[in-house]
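Below is a filled-in request sheet from our internal design queue. Each sheet records the structural input a requester submitted and the sequence that came back. We keep these sheets so that new team members can see what a complete request looks like end to end.

REQUESTER: design group, bay 2
PRIORITY: normal
MODE: inverse folding
CHAIN LENGTH: 306
BACKBONE (tokenized):
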């Protein structure tokens, strides 16, 4: 098996495992991000992450936590193919000589370049996922409960409705700018921190001898660095992608940021940030050193003799 085939296979397996383990956390994150600000005297549907989990399971069963997973699961191979291909090309351009290790700064640049390409492919997937996850968010008041109507029956139904009534293909790329604003700096931070930690643990630029435990720690902290750097952007992305097409609340990313901060303060862009770190911990246990855009040493070890 060639190195490219190993990378793509490991990336696909790692990415699928990450989705299966982390998707319930992502569902709760999007539900909390997307619920409307309650009018005075009323309370939001979800008081916090635990309450969102309880209500989701009570209303939809455990499967409700996995709502919207089909779209990202179906595209995980393509996303990893794009990630590794673009990043490989960036590495080739940045290397001073063939097979020379990249510096931390070069890893940052390579990660940012890969983020641009991933954002283009990820935007439609993210839109479909968020639309399905956000269904049912509502505001409740004394003696009454208002629940949003279920508009979509599944991922394909979301795509069909968007293509039919929201401007065709352009509608599927709603939120491209904030998605790019998440993927570019996020991947730059993640790959930069990952390489910096590996070099720190190895005591130099040769990191080939690092044990699996060091890679797990480096991968987990790198994933945390991704979300620390971009979480407010992710809140804005989700808000824009679930916004009503015919009666939009936001005119764009800047407008969404201003309105969220005005209505909820800076904390409105940091809703349930702790969920991300719980997700990263779960992913590390499942995937060893695979993380968000997976680092695939564990899977590659399994295929080393193929």
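RETURNED SEQUENCE:
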């Amino acid at each position: 098996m060639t190195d490219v085939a190993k990378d793509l296979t490991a990336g696909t397996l790692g990415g699928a495992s990450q989705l299966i383990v982390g998707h319930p956390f992502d569902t709760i994150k999007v539900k909390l991000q997307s619920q409307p600000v309650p009018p005075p005297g009323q309370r939001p549907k979800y008081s916090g992450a635990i309450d969102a989990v309880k209500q989701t399971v009570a209303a939809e069963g455990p499967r409700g936590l996995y709502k919207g997973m089909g779209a990202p699961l179906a595209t995980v191979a393509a996303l990893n193919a794009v990630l590794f291909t673009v990043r490989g090309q960036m590495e080739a351009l940045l290397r001073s000589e063939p097979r020379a290790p990249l510096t931390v700064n070069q890893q940052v640049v390579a990660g940012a370049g890969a983020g641009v390409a991933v954002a283009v492919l990820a935007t439609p997937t993210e839109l479909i996922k968020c639309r399905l996850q956000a269904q049912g968010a509502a505001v409740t008041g004394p003696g009454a409960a208002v629940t949003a109507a279920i508009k979509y029956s599944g991922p394909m139904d979301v795509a069909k409705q968007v293509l039919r009534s929201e401007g065709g293909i352009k509608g599927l790329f709603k939120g491209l700018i904030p998605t790019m604003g998440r993927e570019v700096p996020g991947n730059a931070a993640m790959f930069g921190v990952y390489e910096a930690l590996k070099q720190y643990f190895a005591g130099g630029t040769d990191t080939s001898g690092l044990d699996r435990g060091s890679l797990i720690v480096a991968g987990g902290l790198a994933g945390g660095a991704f979300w620390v750097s971009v979480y407010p952007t992710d809140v804005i992305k989700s808000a824009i992608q679930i916004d009503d097409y015919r009666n939009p609340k936001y005119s764009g990313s800047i407008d969404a940021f201003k309105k969220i901060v005005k209505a909820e303060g800076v904390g409105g862009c940091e809703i349930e940030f702790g969920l991300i770190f719980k997700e990263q911990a779960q992913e590390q246990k499942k995937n060893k050193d695979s993380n968000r855009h997976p680092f695939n040493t564990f899977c590659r070890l399994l295929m080393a003799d193929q």
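SHEET NOTES:
- The beta strands are 43-44, 139-141, 144-145.
- The radius of gyration is 20 Å.
FILED BY: M.R.
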